[in-house]
C-alpha cells in the first residue's frame, strides 16, 4: 500500500490496495490510522461495486443514519449523489458542511464511490477544521471553546428548505420533511474522539445560532468564522477519477460540492460510517 499526501493541508491518495474483496482486520486498522492522519483518503485504481462499498463501510464502523435520502433501489444504506446532464436545479451540497451534524450521533465518516464522472469539473472541496482551529490566536480559541452551537437541517431539508417542496426537477432522491425543523445543541469546538485533537465542528449552514446570542450576533460570529474555516490554506481540492473511492472524516473536515460540468452526468454512490 502506497500513501501519497496531496500536498495540501489534508488528503492523500492510497494506491496498491484492492478494496473489492474480503478485507482483513489488520488492513482495516492500517487504513484507519492513515485516514486519521490525512482526514480524506482517495483509494485509486479500484473496481468496486455496491456490495464492495457496503463491505468496506461495515468494516470501517458500520452504516450511519441517512435521514433525508431515499436509498438506491435494492439497498438500504447507499444513496446516489446524482446530477443528470440536462439538470438545471441548483447544485446539491454546494455549501460547506459536515454530514448530518444535527443528529444526536453525527456520522464518523462518509464514503463516495465514483460511478459516472464528468470529464472536467465536479471537484469536491475539503476544509481541515483541526488545522483551522490550531491556527487561531489563543484568545480566539478560548472564546470559541465557550460557545454552544445550535444545529438544524431546516434550511436544507424542511418542507420550506432548499430541497423542500419548491425544489423540482432534481434527479437525486431527497425526502424533505418536518423532522428537519428539530434543533440540537453541540459544543462548537470538539475533541476528535479518536485522536483527541480539537477542531471546529460544522459551520453556518447546519449551525443556525449560538446559545446565549441574538441571531444578529450569532450570524456575525459564524459568518466571520466560516470565512476562516474555508480559507485557501485549509482547503484540499479533490479531482475525481472514475476508479476512485473517497472516504473523509466528518469529525475533522468540512466539505462541499462544486459544479463546472454543465451538460455532463455525474453520479457517486454514498454511504455514511457510523460514529
Ligand atoms: C456530498 O456532500 O455528499 C456530495 C459532495 C459532492 O457531490 O462532491
In short:
This protein is an alpha+beta fold and 275 residues long. The chain contains 6 helices and 15 strands.
Describe the protein's architecture and organization.
It is built from 6 helices and 15 strands. It is α+β, with helices and mostly antiparallel strands and 275 residues long. The chain has a single domain, classed as Double-stranded beta-helix (4-Layer Sandwich), CATH 3.60.130. The strands form 4 sheets. Strands 1-2-3-13-5-15-4 form a 7-stranded mixed beta sheet, with helices on one face. The protein has a 3-stranded antiparallel beta sheet with strand order 12-6-14. The protein has a 3-stranded antiparallel beta sheet with strand order 8-7-11. The mean pLDDT is 97. Succinic acid binds at residues 81, 93, 124, 255, 257, 270.
Key attributes of the depicted protein:
Double-stranded beta-helix, seven-stranded mixed β-sheet, three-stranded antiparallel β-sheet, 15 strands, binds succinic acid
| Low-pLDDT segments, ≥5 res | none
Taking all residues together, what is the mean pLDDT?
97
Rg over CA atoms: 18 Å
Q: Encode the helix/strand succession as letters.
A: EEHEHEEEHHEHEEEEHEEEE
The CATH superfamily appears as Clavaminate synthase-like
Instruction: Give a quick account of the main beta sheet: strands, pairing sense, barrel closure.
Output: 7 strands, mixed
